[in-house]
Amino acid sequence: MSFDNLCKLLCEKHPDRFASWILGESLKQVEVLKTELSIEPIRADAVTFLRVQGRILHLEFQTKLDSQPPLPLRMLDYWVRLYRLYRLPITQVVILLLPPSAGTVIESAFRVEQTQHQYQVIRLWQEPPELFLSDPALLPFAPLTSALNAEGLLQRVVQRVDELGPAQQAEVSSYIQILAGLKFKKDVIQRLFREDVMRESVIYQDILEEGLQKGLQKGRQEGRQEGERLLVLRLLTHRLGTIPEQTQVQIETLSLEQLEALGEALLEFAEMAELEQWLDVHL
Question: What is the pTM of this model?
């Protein structure tokens, strides 16, 4: 699992809110499309495809620009496959969560000789925070937006969490703290969030560290596996509700590679039966 995967989870949980943000208009009927495309499958762990008003909206979240194949080529590849499949106009948007190192060129087009393909790039650190602060669906991204006083912005985010209903607070707080971990030190996050909310939430690094500690006696590989298992179980619980004990036992038998595959597959699950079917196939 990765920060990018969490972004995909949030986007598919609130597709209308993300589409409205990107396209700048109020949208209600937004369909989440499967990310598996024809020909050779593309690894789509951070990609979301939405169908809205006769258009495909392709969103890709990135914490870093380096990738293989390079991002511009991937965007062209996605466009060709999407257009071949749907024959609809396509809006492609890369959402960068963090600024790259100084001097890095942020590409927004693929260019080779006469071939040119453009896409949009949103630099989250340059986005005004107000929209994100006003919408619970987008609130987890608010700590990464533009602010002269970063810690002051995080305090405003905490205040917005306090204004949410009890049913939303723990879940939204969890997402915020995971993404805020990209920018803020853990002690800052722990200090600003209320203790009772903290007990119900999870910081991504803590999950991995817990897994690593538990796996120290078994070796590094086992530690990574334990951390992945803890994170997958937590995200499954957020997505599907309480996981039956028998199903948890099955998940504990998965290898690291299987856990990583489940971490990607769970973003497509809408009900417990789909998780059970996945386990039947992969165990």
Answer: 0.70
Q: Which amino acid is at 186?
A: K
Phi, psi (rounded to 5 degrees) for 96: -85, 125
d(CA 194, CA 175): 15
268: tokens are 């497509």
% of the chain at pLDDT higher than 90: 41
Please name the residue ranges forming H helices in the chain.
Answer: 3-13, 15-23, 71-86, 130-134, 150-163, 166-180, 186-192, 195-200, 204-215, 220-240, 245-252, 256-265, 272-282
What amino acid is encoded at 43 in this protein?
R
Structure token pair of residue 266: 């769970």
- Residue whose C-alpha is closest to residue 7's, from 94, 129, 107: 94
Least confident of 147-156, 187-196, 269-278: 187-196
Beta strand 31-33 pairing with 109-112: unpaired
- For residue 250, give the amino acid letter: Q
Q: What confidence score (pLDDT) does residue 260 get?
A: 78
202 confidence band (pLDDT: 50, 70, 90): very low
Predicted confidence (pLDDT) at residue 32 exceeds the cutoff of 50: yes
pLDDT above 80 (res 195): no
Are the C-beta atoms of residues 61 and 7 closer than 8 Å to each other? yes
